[in-house]
Amino acid sequence: MILPIVAYGAPVLRKAARDIPSDYPDLQKLIADMFETMYASNGVGLAAPQINRDIRLFVIDSAQIFEHQEEDEKGTYPDEPGVRKAFINARIVSLEGEEWSYNEGCLSIPRIREDVMRPQSVTLEYMDEQFNVHVESFSGITSRIIQHEYDHIEGKLFIDYLKPLKRKMLQGKLNDISKGKVRVDYKMTLAK
């Protein structure tokens, strides 16, 4: 089932999410719905706060980026062919490597894309869909998507990385998003 994505301004997007217990109701269906919602919205990652759930859950599929890249871009990133995965109760263990810039966007902040600096790699401790614990490192585009989605479960947005002047210049667009004045081709709901 495709779920509505909450727009910028929703309080859940600024709240640190809570851990998910192993008996969380219908978790497998929720994860499947999140992947379906992400694909229907042309996203590469989706965090539970974006569907109005204050839980530590996000899904990613960085393989989509590699499937659609130009021939001359192949082999540019160390994480090809990408990763499709759900992350439960994730915690960052470490961020490493040189920071690099990449133009990011967010399904909750449509029509705004900005360059954001992030470290090259991330090591996470997380649980898979069967609540098995993993400690794993990711690099390149996959690392960037994970860091972006991880920020969501911490109540942080990619625009928080922008310089104050840039954020001030975007404020009118952000206000329009929170008021529902921006049209998107996926199901979106306003802040409540």
From TrEMBL:
It catalyses: N-terminal N-formyl-L-methionyl-[peptide] + H2O = N-terminal L-methionyl-[peptide] + formate. Fe cation binds at C106, H148, H152. InterPro entries: Peptide_deformylase, Peptide_deformylase_sf. Binds 1 Fe(2+) ion. The active site is at E149. Removes the formyl group from the N-terminal Met of newly synthesized proteins. Requires at least a dipeptide for an efficient rate of reaction. N-terminal L-methionine is a prerequisite for activity but the enzyme has broad specificity at other positions. NCBIfam families: pept_deformyl, PRK00150.1-3. This is Peptide deformylase. It comes from Filimonas effusa. The lineage of its organism: Bacteria, Pseudomonadati, Bacteroidota, Chitinophagia, Chitinophagales.
